[in-house]
Write a structure and sequence with these properties.
Elements (H helix, E strand, L loop, with lengths): L14 H24 L1 H9 L6 H30 L2 H18 L8 H27 L2 H4 L5 H32 L4 H26 L15 H12 L3 H32 L3 H29 L1 H21 L3 H29 L5 H29 L4 H19 L4 H9 L2
Helix pairs in contact: 1-5, 1-7, 1-8, 1-10, 3-5, 3-9, 3-14, 4-5, 4-8, 5-14, 7-8, 7-11, 7-13, 10-11, 10-13, 10-14, 10-15, 11-12, 11-13, 12-13, 12-15, 14-15
Length: 432
């Protein structure tokens, strides 16, 4: 437990609680790594949809539908959890939902044609919505565990643990895929097993979180009675008083849109544009996770030293370079360079964004304000991949133009980051 120095933790917080919190990142990262990035995304496009021209757009449409559901419901769920001190209870329910929906993806190869496409899209909508709920709720625990000065470190530990979990799930799946391919078995045989492996790791690892992480908040009031839209408007009106937090949300919509492209379409781009095969793609994503883990862990310490804003700005510059390199390279070796830089930037940018949100959120409304952060990240996850899919479609399948256009999202995010004053925003949060 020496990994978690007491100086970064709030008084009374035990190291095992932080370990339990970080284990949730470990648990859920296998879902994004295996399902959204490395395995099921490419299988959906090439196997279930048979490489149809609309396949990539259908994949991004399914993800966008799940993100829209989360956008409309998470702020209200966060407010409800704050009022009742129920973050952990809702986290358990979200985890169960994602685990079961992920396991159900194993049956999709048994269906063909439109039925298979519809079932796969429906299960992706359900599983990804529950995953998003869990990600938001676990983020809301961060300010309860870390000091203001240690938030970057603790967030970095969580993301680093997460990428290790993603590598574990992907590594086991990769071993099974290689074994299956050596025996001439098709993707319809090994993809279902990888979904079951991912669901099992998610569920088992999350048990450590439920056992070790307490609910420190106390119930505050009765239900407001507001619906999702009304609660979202009420929360938004209140959040407007926090000028720097609002600038962060606008910045998040842009740069997370670009990150979402990398997460949801990296495998598709690698296989259809660069020429990777399934096993090579999985190795690529595995190494990307190593780089992301190192970036998240190491950059957490740098972030607390040089400041959240400067740290995030540096990662956005790296993301711009990734987009340009990926659009220009024609060889697998060249794409490896882009993927490595993307891994380092991914871990550090996601860690920095979560830490900044925790730093600027009012202490009594953590789940609610992390719900707004989730609203921004899910809006980004609609804007980024859908724009990529639309540009690819409009250019006759030219994904190079689409990936180059993604750099614009990071440039705009960098511009929107400039007005943020971290100290002013922190003072506003503490006045609550």
């Amino acid at each position: 437990m020496a990994l978690f120095p007491a100086s970064a933790l709030r008084p009374g917080v035990r190291k095992r609680e932080v370990f339990g919190w970080a284990m949730y990142d470990f648990a859920n990262s296998g879902y994004t790594t295996v399902v959204i990035t490395a395995v099921f995304a490419a299988y959906f496009v090439g196997g279930i949809a048979k490489g149809a021209p609309w396949a990539a757009f259908a994949w991004t449409a399914a993800l966008s539908t799940s993100y829209a559901i989360v956008m409309l419901t998470m702020p209200a769920i966060g407010a409800w959890a704050d009022l009742r001190a129920a973050k952990k209870r809702v986290l358990v329910l979200a985890t169960i939902g994602c685990v079961f929906a992920t396991a159900a993806l194993a049956v999709t190869p048994s269906f063909s044609g439109a039925a298979g496409v519809a079932l796969a899209m429906a299960l992706i909508v359900v599983s990804n919505a529950f995953y998003s709920y869990g990600e938001s709720l676990t983020g809301a625990f961060l300010p309860e565990l870390a000091t203001a000065e240690g938030m970057g470190k603790v967030s970095g530990w969580g993301w680093a643990f997460g990428y290790v979990g993603g590598m574990l799930a992907l590594g086991i799946c990769l071993a099974y895929v290689l074994w299956s391919q050596s025996r001439g078995l098709p993707a319809a045989h090994f993809v279902p097993v990888t979904m079951l492996i991912t669901a099992a790791i998610y569920g088992l690892a999350a048990c450590a979180t439920f056992a070790l992480l307490p609910e420190r908040a106390q119930p505050r009031a009765a239900d407001t009675g507001l619906g999702a839209w009304q609660q979202l408007r009420a929360t938004y009106r209140q959040a407007r008083a926090y000028r720097d937090f609002m600038w962060l949300l606008a910045c998040t919509v842009c740069y997370q849109g670009g990150v979402a492209v990398a997460i949801t379409l990296a495998a598709i781009y690698a296989e259809q544009v660069i020429g990777f095969v399934a096993s090579e793609t999985m190795v690529l994503i595995f190494v990307l996770n190593i780089a992301a883990s190192l970036g998240a862990f190491g950059f957490g310490y740098v972030q607390d030293r040089i400041g959240h804003k400067v740290s995030l700005a540096g990662t956005l510059v790296a993301w711009i370079a990734v987009c340009v390199i990926a659009a220009m390279v024609t060889t697998k070796g060249g794409f490896w360079w882009a993927a490595t830089i993307a891994g380092l930037a991914m871990g550090s940018s996601q860690s920095a964004g979560r830490a900044m949100t925790g730093y600027l959120a009012p202490p009594l409304q953590l789940a609610e304000f992390f719900g707004l952060w989730t609203f921004a990240t899910r809006l980004a996850s609609i804007v980024g991949p859908l724009s990529f899919g639309a540009i690819t479609w409009m250019t006759g399948g030219n994904q190079r133009i689409a990936i180059l256009s993604t750099a614009v999202l990071f440039v705009v995010g960098l511009v929107l980051l400039l007005p943020i004053d971290m100290q002013r925003g922190r003072q506003a949060a503490l006045r609550n």
